[in-house]
Specification:
- The structure is a single chain.
- The chain is mainly beta and 98 residues long.
- The strands form two sheets. A six-stranded antiparallel beta sheet has the order 6-7-1-2-5-8, with no helix packed on it. The chain has a two-stranded antiparallel sheet with strand order 3-4.
- The radius of gyration is 15 Å and the shape is elongated.
């Protein structure tokens, strides 16, 4: 899915995965006790960052559609067309799932 938004520099827009609503043993977790998800899908990617000393463009390592793992408090929550997304720098991403 691609949004009608283009992040600047080395930023990405991530659609967070749904929070867990049930434990492994089958107990339902109320909305107030659910933890903020730490993984999601990239929906938009910026062009990359320019190197300070040479001025050359450092391309992004992630692409639209990648499943990523990020920090618990990474990024800024934004609302686009009534849907919640996170916008963060590429360096806030810890890993990419295959």
């Amino acid at each position: 899915m691609s949004l009608n938004i283009k992040p600047s520099a080395d930023r990405v827009v991530v659609e967070a995965a749904a929070a867990e609503t049930k434990t492994a043993s089958g107990i339902y977790i109320p909305e107030t006790a659910q933890e903020k998800p730490q993984k999601g899908t990239i929906v938009a990617v910026g062009p990359g960052k320019y190197a300070d000393n040479t001025g050359t463009l450092i391309p992004m390592l992630v692409k639209v559609g990648d499943q990523v793992l990020y920090g618990k408090y990474a990024g800024t929550e934004i609302n686009i067309d009534g849907k919640e997304y996170l916008i963060m720098r590429e360096t806030d991403i810890y890993a990419v799932f295959n």
